């Protein structure tokens, strides 16, 4: 697809942008290069056999599912204001009160 001055002016009108006559050649070149870049996407395979592009590693390594001892309750007591029978106690707020 070729981008010319008329296409740039039309897009500018749709976006309600004022375009100076001196800016027009630069805008035509910039928009043309954007469209040319996007046209390259049409060259990529897009059928069911094409692998999707996903950012990051293809698979996350999993760790062994092993049971480990937790911290002893006595060491947890220093982390909270209230601790009883191995549980952190939190204040009841608003809708949590349950009537």
Helix segment tally:
3
Which geometry do the CA atoms define? Answer: elongated
The span between the termini is: 67 Å
Whole-number mean pLDDT: 84
Can you describe this structure?
- This protein has a domain at 5-43.
- The protein starts with a helix and ends in an 11-residue tail after the last strand.
- The protein is 30% helix and 4% strand.
- It has three helices and two strands.
- It has helices spanning 5-14, 24-39, 73-76; strands at 83-84, 87-88.
- The protein is elongated and about 75 Å long.
- The longest helix is centred in the first third of the chain and has 16 residues, at 24-39.
- A hairpin with a 2-residue loop joins strand 1 (83-84) and strand 2 (87-88).
- Helix 1 crosses helix 2 (24-39).
- The protein has a two-stranded antiparallel ribbon with strand order 1-2.
Concise structural overview:
This protein is 30% helix and 4% strand.
List the topology elements.
Blueprint: H1 5-14, H2 24-39, H3 73-76, E1 83-84, E2 87-88
Antiparallel strand pairs: 1-2
Helix pairs in contact: 1-2
């Amino acid at each position: 697809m070729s981008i010319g001055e008329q296409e740039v002016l039309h897009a500018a009108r749709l976006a309600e942008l004022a375009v100076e006559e001196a800016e027009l050649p630069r805008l035509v070149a910039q928009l043309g290069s954007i469209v040319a870049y996007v046209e390259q996407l049409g060259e990529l395979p897009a059928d069911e056999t094409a692998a999707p592009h996903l950012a990051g590693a293809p698979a996350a390594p999993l760790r062994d599912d092993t049971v480990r001892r937790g911290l002893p309750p006595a060491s947890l007591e220093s982390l909270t204001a209230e601790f009883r029978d191995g549980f952190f106690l939190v204040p009841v707020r608003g809708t949590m009160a349950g009537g």
